[in-house]
Write a structure and sequence with these properties.
By secondary structure, the protein is of the alpha+beta class. About 45% of the residues lie in helices and about 20% in strands. It contains 28 helices and 28 strands. A hairpin with a 6-residue loop joins β8 and β9. The longest helix has 29 residues.
């Protein structure tokens, strides 16, 4: 990735010098069809891209540069003067000398189709040979498709025109029509480069419309569209996508008082997508896995709705008003993450989405906030590589949690009124932290600076622990909340919390009988209003999940949970307790085997399907990473027995049955368990109500393959049964999972030594390669990993580099020797790319955490 970076200082200098009046972009995509990925002589397949940029320079005579990553440039013209491409283009930038006050730059380039999900991605569907294209740019890959000024604060309107193969349809941000073989699109509003978009191909396309009449009588009509590959059309539930879309548009119009500003609203579900989705105005792109080929639980539909609403919130937070530089990425991502759940609860059928947020999204934030790479929500983003890595649990989930805390702090009405003023004052512009804080200060009457310093400008997560003193009569004499902060990030923050007291009823239910909302500040806060209450069996210090913190328990509360967690009737309180217990396991405060035992004892009684599926993932992680190695085999046996027991007792056809079936497949290892999976696949055994559809078949095949109970011929037969793009990804993952040294060598070579695989197949191969049951087979690759990663980072795209560095780190070689090898690499490569070092440091931290947890678990055994 040499020469492709852009520093914050360079961006600021260019923004101070230039302003952009508009772009005309002409793309010729007719070269997309045909066999192969290149032109036959080892060069990538390319398309013609002609860009005209009209811009002003406030210092005539000055120099600057435009951005372009392309295999070749045919011509460059600046203000009618032809420039020598060989002199002005270095592969990533076009040098612009002696600028006038008003300028016109024309660049005719040969840009490359991508196989890594960056720029103009080209996908060939193995099912029918059809070619599909789409673009993905964030944070800075529009320059792989057209010449531009690639930074968020140089906004401009765009006019796109596209030539495409016969029979194709083309979409872009604006409305389009085809005339004389050319698709021409309406000029956009002023937007940033990274949210322009083109989707082209023989997509299956469904339409609908949204109408809204406002109080002043004005009417808004928004054409709606949704698309996917033809091969997925039989599974495409566009009606549900449109339902959530309309509910979201109603919700945001009700609360934002700013009509949707970008005309149409298309949503494209595209193959081999690196992200969950991208908020391109007028043409949102999603990973096609949100179209479900088999039976899934309501948690999957809730997650899809959340993503639809998250991206819709971006139309205002991010697209209409955009951060000036990636330092303030939170101004769009934190708000969209919060608004996704806020709207899901407020507008759709998913009324328990805050439970999912507390259990799943916050788990992502807590992990990220304890890594050595943790950063404030408002981060220090030095360059584009920093920006790419900061699409993380801090920017998304912690930021959203902080906003949830902010709503509790200033009140929902003041928060939403602040948002409304923010949109109207900054429409089509760029902002920084202070712009938002000033309107929130106006609407709330509070000084936002101290709150921002504590919550947005410092890193780390606090722990809150209850202290309970009882009087002689057995009532609460004093209840206090103790706040702790890690040494690395010692900030003790102000928390608005609800403290809940719980006791069991005569019938055995664990219910709340007292609740007090209070402000926690400093190391110890006494909750005076709870004095005199009956003695609690459980104290929940962040009841209702108002703040962002790690919950801890006093001894009585922990003992109550170990004995009666399943009796806790409130689903949100139960989810918070599960999350707290998992954090304790990760922090080596609760032995992994104790957490596993709690899951086996109480997960079968969990009513929230999203929480249940999260518990399955955590229990598996506890076994693989945190359990003492000498107990692993015992733990695997206990978990497999428990999963099978719950599978057999779950309601026929229920979501719980499906979740337990998938979990059982994931943990099956003994021959009787593997035989059951084989029998379910061939139909010689059935479980009442369990439909073994195609997706579940692949879920059963991976453990069979990894354990040596299914070979390549079985996988070939399954691919023949499911000869689709999705089937191919599953087959590649299973092939790499086979327990063979030769298989591992081949998988390693395909990912590390070659760039022949697409991003999706790289991801599938890495997932199959790294099997917990094959630690001995993958042990030789620990040394190879450290020898290869700097070269991989230098030679491959940043997305593939991230996939390899994260995915192939030898985490399963969980021994002190691996930790020492990691430290040795970090010591010897102090000058490596900061983003690469960050990834290795994060992986090292996960490994060190696993070793501490294993020691805790082993100590529990010895005790």
């Amino acid at each position: 990735m040499p020469g492709e970076n852009l520093s914050r200082e360079e961006a600021r200098e260019r923004a101070a010098l230039l302003s952009v009046d508009g772009y005309d972009v002409s793309l010729d995509l007719r070269s997309a069809v045909g066999d192969g990925d290149g032109d036959g002589d080892g060069q990538p397949r390319t398309f013609r891209s002609v860009t005209t940029i009209r811009f002003r320079c406030n210092e005539p005579g000055a120099s600057s540069f435009a951005d372009l990553i392309a295999p070749g440039v045919t011509s460059v013209s600046l203000n009618g003067r032809d420039l020598d491409p060989g002199e002005v283009f270095d592969g990533a930038r076009i040098a612009l000398e002696d600028l006038a006050a008003e300028n016109e730059l024309v660049v005719d380039a040969q840009c490359a189709y991508s196989r890594t999900g960056e720029g103009m991605h080209r996908f060939v569907d193995p099912e029918d040979g059809e070619v599909y294209l789409y673009t993905q740019y964030e944070p800075a890959d529009a320059r792989r498709v057209f010449a531009n000024f690639e930074q968020p604060d140089l906004k401009a309107p765009y006019r796109f025109e596209v030539r495409a193969p016969e029979g194709w349809t083309v979409w872009s941000n604006g409305a389009g029509e085809r005339a004389d073989g050319v698709w021409k699109f309406a000029e956009t509003k002023p937007i940033s480069t990274y949210i322009t978009c083109v989707v082209a191909g023989p997509y299956h396309y469904v339409t609908d419309s949204y109408e809204r009449v406002f109080e002043d009588g004005t009417k808004l009509e928004i054409p709606l569209g949704a698309m996917c590959r033809k091969g997925l059309a039989p599974h495409f539930d566009a009606d549900d996508v449109f339902l959530v879309t309309k509910q979201g548009l109603d919700f945001f119009h009700d609360h934002f008082d700013y009509p949707y500003p970008f005309g149409k609203y298309d949503q494209a579900f595209v193959p081999e997508y690196n992200l969950g989705a991208m908020e391109n105005p007028g043409l949102v792109t999603f990973r096609e896995e949100y179209i479900f080929r088999g039976k899934v639980t309501q948690a999957s539909y809730e997650a899809r709705a959340n993503v639809i609403l998250h991206e819709m919130a971006h139309m205002w937070f991010g697209d209409l008003v955009t951060m000036e530089w990636w330092d303030d990425l939170w101004l769009k991502e934190s708000f969209a993450d919060f608004m996704g759940t806020f709207a899901n609860v407020g507008a759709t059928r998913f009324k328990d989405a805050w439970i999912t947020f507390a259990n799943r999204r916050k788990a992502w934030a807590y992990r990220a906030d304890q890594l050595p790479s943790t950063h404030p929500v408002t981060a220090d983003i030095r360059d584009l590589e920093d920006a790419k890595l900061n699409f993380d649990g801090i920017t998304y989930a912690k930021g959203a949690s902080v906003l949830k805390q902010l709503v509790a702090y200033v009140g929902q009405d003041a928060f939403l009124e602040g948002a409304r003023r923010y949109f109207k004052r900054n429409a089509y512009g760029n902002t920084r932290l202070g712009d938002l804080l000033s309107v929130l200060g106006e609407t709330s009457g509070r000084d936002m600076s101290a709150w921002a310093r504590s919550w947005l400008q410092t890193a780390g997560v606090n722990s809150l622990t209850p202290q309970v003193l009882l009087d002689a009569a057995g009532r609460v004499a004093e209840l206090a909340v103790v706040q702790e902060a890690p040494e690395s990030h010692p900030e003790e923050r102000p928390h608005r919390v609800a403290v809940g007291l719980y006791r069991r009823t005569p019938e055995g239910a664990l219910v709340r009988y007292a609740r007090v909302e209070t402000d926690v500040e400093g190391p110890r806060t006494v909750v005076a209003d709870l004095a005199g209450a009956e003695a609690p069996e459980l104290v929940l210090v962040n009841d209702d999940d108002l703040t962002y913190c790690k919950i801890r328990f006093d001894d009585t509360s922990l003992a109550t949970l170990k004995a009666h967690l399943g009796a806790l009737t409130d689903p949100l309180a139960r989810a918070l307790c599960w999350s707290a217990l998992w954090n304790m396991t990760r922090d080596a405060l609760l032995p992994a085997r104790d957490f596993v035992a709690l899951v086996l004892r109480f997960a079968g009684r969990e009513s929230d399907i999203g929480v249940l599926q999260m518990l399955h993932a955590w229990a598996n992680s506890a076994l693989v990473h945190y359990a003492a190695p000498e107990w692993r085999a015992t733990g695997e046996e206990l978990v497999a027995e428990g999963a099978l027991r719950e599978l057999r007792t779950a309601g026929p056809g229920s979501e719980q049955q499906l979740a337990w079936a998938r979990f059982f497949a994931n943990v099956a290892f003994a021959e009787p368990d593997l035989k059951l999976l084989r029998d379910l696949l061939d139909g010689t055994t059935t479980i009442d109500g369990l439909e073994v559809d195609q997706e579940l078949r692949w879920a059963f095949l991976e453990p069979l393959t990894a354990r040596g109970a299914a070979d390549e011929s079985v996988l070939a037969a399954e691919l023949a049964r499911d000869d689709t793009a999705s089937g191919k990804r599953h087959q590649v993952r299973c092939l790499a999972a086979r327990p063979s040294a030769a298989v591992k060598a081949q998988a390693w070579a395909q990912v590390v030594e070659s760039d022949a695989l697409s991003n999706a197949l790289v991801e599938a191969t890495i997932a199959g390669f790294d099997q917990p049951s094959q630690r001995e087979l993958t042990a030789p690759y620990a040394e190879k990993y450290f020898a290869a990663i700097e070269r991989v980072w230098r030679e491959r795209s940043i997305q593939i580099g991230m996939d390899v560095v994260r995915g192939l780190f030898p985490a399963l070689q969980d021994r002190p020797e691996t930790l020492r090898a990691t430290d040795a690499w970090l010591q010897a490569h102090r000058d490596a790319a900061p983003a690469l070092r960050r990834l290795v440091l994060e992986a090292r931290d996960d490994l060190a955490r696993a070793l501490r947890a294993q020691e805790c678990d082993a100590t529990a055994s010895a005790g």
